[in-house]
Amino acid sequence: MTSEPVIEMSGVGRDYVAAAGGTGALVRALHAIDLRVERGEALAVLGPSGSGKSTLLNLLGLLDTPTRGSYRLDGRAVESLKGNELAATRNQRIGFVFQSFHLVPRLSATDNVALPLRFAGVPRRDRRRRALALLDRLGLADRAGHKPAELSGGQQQRVAIARAMVTEPSLLLADEPTGALDQATGASIMTLLDELHAEGMTLIIVTHDENLGARMPRCLRMLDGRIVGG
User: I want to staple 127 with a disulfide (CB 3.0 to 4.6 A). Which of 122, 169, 184, 215 is the partner?
Assistant: First the structure.
């Protein structure tokens, strides 16, 4: 008997009303996306600008909702989630890693990592313990008290990855995770993501980088709002 997939999309589409020129024209950003991602799988989503990658990422991460079709996350229909329940699911089940890190400048590395636990109502002592353990694991124990401006780009991205992991999510979404880094630092971040996948993390990387996509076990290609390969 197979386990429930982490992601199951069927016929998912997303439309927008264009505001440019005041025309109110309908823009179909995604067309009938069918996608199944098994627990522990790792894949890349590749495509040029405007192909629908970012729209798909927003839907996967519960930052947006489909115009049509169905999306089940961990077996739960996303369409049935409302308000606080949707926010709690996004906070607890999905980890985000962004190209620009999105760290809070005034907070230390420890407090940045612990932020999702704070939103989840975890007691301060527990969230600090869990954050410090992750920073230690990612080689940043000696930077735990440093603010983002005091860290290198690679260190900031490791803090961001620790923050994404701290709730032990079902799914890790990475949007161009090496895009703001030099080649050597980017390679070290990808090695870290490879290690997380090897330990069972379900990982989706959205990128336009062919080299990054080539190292992933599975690669989807998007064009004009459709999955055209993979």
Answer: 122
CATH number at residue 150: 3.40.50.300
Number of independent structural domains in the chain? 1
Strands, E, within the chain: which ranges?
7-17, 26-37, 42-46, 68-73, 76-77, 94-98, 171-175, 203-207, 218-223, 226-229
Q: For residue range 20-53, what is the model confidence (pLDDT) as tens digits?
A: 655 678 888 999 999 999 999 999 999 998 899 9
Per the domain annotation, does 160 fall within a domain?
yes
Q: What is the DSSP string of 186-205?
A: HHHHHHHHHHHHHTT--EEE
Characterize 64-79 residue by residue with b for buried, 16 or more Cβ atoms within 10 angstroms of its Cβ, and e for exposed. Answer: bebeebebbbeeeebe
Asked if the structure places residue 51 within a domain, the reply is: yes
* Structural domain contains residue 9: no
Length of the chain: 230
